[in-house]
Amino acid sequence: MIEQDETPRDLALLAVPPVGSVQAVGDVWVAYRLCDGSGMVVGPVAAYLRELKACGRPATTQRSYAH
Hints:
Strand content: 5-15%
Largest sheet: 2 strands, antiparallel
Mean pLDDT: 88
């Protein structure tokens, strides 16, 4: 929330470096994985994506949430 004495930030100037990637795996239980900048799988995200699959969510949901 912006207070009256604060100036709003120009979010167009905000730059987040692209680090890591979402990769298609093709496994029955893990359709996608999120890898960090060094190519290692991000453990907590991997666990979450497995949980999505166990709950019956489609692979497209896993992909979307990984992004």
